[in-house]
Design goal:
The chain is an alpha+beta fold. It has helices at about 1-25, 25-30, 120-130; strands at about 40-50, 55-65, 70-75, 85-90, 90-100, 105-110, 115-120. The chain has a seven-stranded antiparallel sheet with strand order 4-3-2-1-7-6-5.
């Protein structure tokens, strides 16, 4: 009986991860921006972001940046159905956005997948801009 519990738990975990990947837009991003080489650059672990219209990755992201682009990965054991991404800076636009509680977020839009916005805090956006070595929009 106990082995069925663990099987059930594994199936629920996998199904939930797959569903979150679809709802957040991660799957669409992975089709357009798969990571083809191991990422080299600065990394920030345990980051948070809102993606799409319904998904929150709270403290479960690894965000990386270098002069070429943005690296996104989900921490284990949440990585199921979330392959690592690499998005070139030329495909990213950023703009500040006020939330309903007057918190400022920065929204990233991706040229090849325009319907999947990603919102991050301003501190992380500053780190990305520093790693990129030039301001966004330039």
């Amino acid at each position: 009986m106990q082995q069925y519990f663990w099987l059930f738990l594994a199936l629920v975990w996998t199904g939930a991860s797959w569903l979150i990947s679809r709802l957040s837009g991660w799957r669409r991003l992975s089709e357009a921006y798969p990571e083809r080489l191991p990422f080299t650059g600065k990394h920030w672990w345990f980051q948070s972001a809102e993606m799409g219209r319904r998904s929150h990755y709270s403290g479960s992201l690894i965000v990386g940046a270098n002069h070429e682009g943005l690296h996104l990965a989900v921490l284990l054991p949440f990585r199921i159905a979330h392959p690592p991404l690499f998005i070139p800076w030329s495909d990213i636009s950023m703009r500040e956005q006020k939330s309903r509680f007057s918190f400022t977020k920065v929204e990233l839009a991706f040229r090849q997948v325009p319907g999947v916005p990603m919102r991050i805090n301003t501190a992380l956006a500053g780190k990305l801009q520093e790693a990129r070595n030039k301001p966004f929009g330039a």
